[in-house]
Fold this protein.
Amino acid sequence: MKICFISNLYPPFIIGGAEISGKQTVEGLEKRGYDVIVITTSPNRSGFMETKNGVKIYRIKSLNLYTLYNHQDQPEIIKPIWHMIDL
């Protein structure tokens, strides 16, 4: 069975526990013989594909004003606009 896991963030880029839980779920399914891929955002403005622990990870370019990886460095006035685009 093929399974696609979609998440804004995926390790090694971690902001909270959801990324850790997602990684454990994905790698657990992979160990059980499922064909698992992950689609997530890229830490930079270009996309790429990598394989870690047998899982293909597609990191796609963000179409928003900035990526989640540098959100803390952004001016407060820009953040509501980012969230509206994200919706």
Observations:
- Strands lie at 2-6, 35-41, 48-52, 55-60.
